[in-house]
Amino acid sequence: MAARLRSRRILLPLLLVVVLAAWFAGARAGSSAATFTQQNLKVSGTPEADGDPVDLDATLYLPEHTPAPAVLLAHGFGGSKASVAGDAQDLAERGYVVLTYSARGMGSSGGLIHLDSPDYEVKDGQRMLDQLAARPQVQTDSSGDPVVGVVGASYGGALALMLAGTDDRVDAIVPMITWNDLRQALFPQSTKTGGTGVFKKQWTASLLGSTLIGSGGSLGTTPSADQLKNLAEGDTQQALCGRLAKDLCQGYVQTATTGESTDDLLDLLGKSSPARVASKITIPSLLVQGQQDSLFPLSEADANAQAIAAAGGDVKLYWDTGGHDAGFDTEPLRPVVADFLDSALSGGSLAGTPGFQVEVASGALASDTTAPTSQLRTSMLAPGVPSRDASGRVRESSAPLTRMKLSGAGQFVLAPPGATPAAITSLPGAGALLSALGSAGSSLNLNALPGESATFQTEPLAQALTVTGSPRVTVGIASSAKEATLFASVVDVDEDGGTTLPSQLVAPIRVTGLGAGSTQDVTIDLPAVVRDIPAGHRLRVVLSTTDQAYAMPQEARLYQVSLAGDGMLTIPQARFTVTDAGSAVPWGGVIGVAGGVALLMLLFLVLHRRKLGGRPDETLTGTPIAIEGLGKAYGDGFRAVRDLSFRVERGQVLGLLGPNGAGKTTTLRMLMGLILPSEGRIRIFGHEVRPGAPVLSRLGSFIEGPGFLPHLSGRDNLSLYWRSTGRTADPYLEVALEIAGLGDDVDRKVRTYSQGMRQRLAIAQAMLGLPDLLVLDEPTNGLDPPQIREMREVLGRYAATGRTVVVSSHLLAEVEQSCSHVVVMAAGRLVAHGRVDELVGDGASVAVEVEPVSKGAEVAKTVAGVDEVRVVDGVLVVRADLQARADLVRELVQAGVAVSRVAPSRGLEETFLALVGEEA
């Protein structure tokens, strides 16, 4: 015993040393194993107005295999090509030709900053497209027309939109955390009353003000050589403006001095806005916007999405938890961007992919934005964004609306002289700090000051809801002056009275035409947010007279604010499916290593205790899946799966059904060892499933669309995938291809594939190695009826080899035709399990073919136990239990009614609805 204990004491430290050494070696190897080359370029940009030439500093990344599609990668304001080098390398490793460059006036590029002007920065972008078109390594649609997507965040995101609306060579765009209309972004007006809104002075100063003194090629605090030259020549205006174009600089200086916009500045901002060209964009577009963003809020992306969708473009919205206020990291979004580009640049269809994805902090009911976990929720349609059906017709998409009664009498509020003291809701880059200072439980509330804010409140919520978008309220406003400036918001109030301002966002309004005792009713679009509001909380509408982030009137004013219209708060929601949950904390450095060591120690102890999952259950070695008492609960108390038990046998094609939120995806993830159950167990061929369990090698899966390299053939993609797994066993490539039915098309480039061919290739990838168990999530998404029929045949052929297939799908009619067995889940529980034909046959409704049918209906109504009698298409349909059915047939015969056939009247869809309820 003592020797055994000593061996354990030695083994554990030794194991840790070996693992850490391998980890560091792997990290070093990974960092040096480049699959691309780089070339630094100097590209001639658009000359300045005075004729001065402009050189742009660029870098071209060339992947291992060419020709390939290209990505033009733009950076944010004040950055350079170095800012996006990590993103460029990731895309190059994925097989794209990538061109990055420092925008004019930034980095080592020459010229002045014109703020994405169509006459300068957009033309520079077109010259970059010319560069790509001239490269033999870049795949082309035709001579001079490269296959290219444009990706960029903030300043670079607006360039992507402007370039797509100007040059039809662009094939796809991914603009992130950017603007639709700079006039609205920097002078926001949250009503439809018209007129210029309220000047967003702090953010504008943070951006444009930072360029007034420039150092070399970057934004700093030391005059550049050009500035000193301008100063020596007496041009003090340009010396002050640094690398900001003079017309833009003059407009900004005047506005910052007076707090009022100039017509010239508004005209320049309008020209630099995607709003002027978005209606010309008809290409696939993934719009990523941040929820923590008082500079470019969610409403800016929504405006872009609506214009592109109305023009016929295929628009996808992704609302990230970050933004300009909380930091925005593109690294976690790289797979999202790559998957979109893989489909958009390969000529494939985006049909069937979610139109709306939202990251929501802290699981099922988030109460703060700093929680370490987040959920990814998806919806096929984006609220308010029109989409197109399979025939191309536009169908409107709108979020379901919840209306809640507000209470509160009319209130007088003071706008203090000098606008001091002022509420503080947002500071550039400090949103998370302000949220912590003003959150529930804090004694410091900077969001609304006493005497300067009017409040109206709902009753406690009877049930939880998720605010998804911009709520709306109508108020009456009177002012002692001719106009009023107010800042509106919705606050989450918990049971103890603690308050939280979601995302630290307010909606500025400026109302004119007041005075002389007049009151004007104004409908306000409150800040667009995503927030789970638990039952028992209240929603409070706050209208404040001050906000430190904006330019406010300096003279004292007195406002009267009251509820108007029907006094209701209208709240948009969306119907989501929870598709993922993961850490949102950027673990790094020592913390990451320490956490990894702790995890390894825990994993070692668990595995040692359980002896790698224990011995297999000999009675189940021939059973592909055995689930017993399975449950999954998350840290916030939400239970996704509870007490789930069923088995799947060899040769079955099992359909996993259930409404959104039923727990299907969570069950599949536990089945594949991606997440651990809270209770119960899953056995595959008798072996208990654990992360990394050897038995998982007998399972093939297709859960989300794989990122095929579009410039490679289907065969090359499969070979590359198999090699990347590190397995040396025979992949049985030809057998998988034969079952998938791709034929000679497997040797064509994936970019030429239809959506159905890409789906079949994905199934073939899951079949590599001919796994004994195949798990597929929505394999027919986006397929037309002939393609669905082909997929049905693929699954049937695979099961006919004696293997087992599990399919999760929402297409009930397809499951009825494709699957031999079905499991129905609702609210995380099992509600039915069995053969499809038996499940359908147990229905309470039967169809009775009789002659004459009218007399048969009269007789049926007199039979005890018959609950419902209908005539459908000349057939008598009754709802009755088994005994009543026998009595019915006897009574019909005795009444002289001819009975030719009795059969179940319903299919799987009716069975499903009967099991889980019409609402689900």
Automatic annotation (TrEMBL):
Signal peptide: 1-29
Xref: Pfam families: ABC_tran (PF00005), Peptidase_S15 (PF02129), PepX_C (PF08530)
PROSITE patterns referenced in this protein's UniProt entry, alphabetically: ABC_TRANSPORTER_1, ABC_TRANSPORTER_2
SUPFAM superfamilies reported for this sequence: alpha/beta-Hydrolases, Galactose-binding domain-like, P-loop containing nucleoside triphosphate hydrolases
Keyword annotations of the record: ATP-binding, Hydrolase, Membrane, Nucleotide-binding, Signal, Transmembrane, Transmembrane helix, Transport
Sequence ranges assigned to domain ABC transporter in this UniProt record: 625-852
Gene Ontology MF annotations: hydrolase activity
InterPro entries, alphabetized: AAA+_ATPase, AB_hydrolase_fold, ABC_transporter-like_ATP-bd, ABC_transporter-like_CS, Galactose-bd-like_sf, P-loop_NTPase, Xaa-Pro-like_dom, Xaa-Pro_dipept_C
Positions of transmembrane segments: 584-607
PANTHER family: ABC TRANSPORTER, ATP-BINDING PROTEIN (PTHR43335:SF4)
Family per similarity comment: Belongs to the ABC transporter superfamily.
Protein name: CocE/NonD family hydrolase
Source organism (scientific name): Kineosporia mesophila
Lineage, highest ranks first: Bacteria, Bacillati, Actinomycetota, Actinomycetes, Kineosporiales
